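Input.
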Amino acid sequence: MIDGKILKGDPIPLFASGQQAKVAFMIGTNAWEASLFVFNQPPIDVLAKAYGEDQRIIDQLYSNIPEKCALSADLMGDMLFRASTKFLADRMNDIAPGYAYYFDYFTKSIKPSYPGVPHAFESVTYLEVTAYSLRQ
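Output.
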């Protein structure tokens, strides 16, 4: 939400110029952020051309992904989530402690269904832990 009260503007330019709040900061990504991009993705060569990237380098960096149809989604997840997470945490460390997490823990309820922990599913774990704690 960018409303002038909660966020004064786009976080990337604010952090780049050192205008972020001077407090400890935590940000992270999940193992399968690509879950947001699985459907309707262009082929990887189209995506690489659109972003001016070298297809050969992408092929090298993502050679461990067996499902080539998922490659565009994985690349988008890395570009939009992991890269910005690293950028923001790194910029924060100049001002206050900055922490980045990578969430890949599967709860029993989601493990069989997904190749990795989908976007926002860390909240499912928080809720399960909270519910368990309240029952104790």
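The helical segments are 11-16, 44-50, 55-61, 71-92, 122-135.
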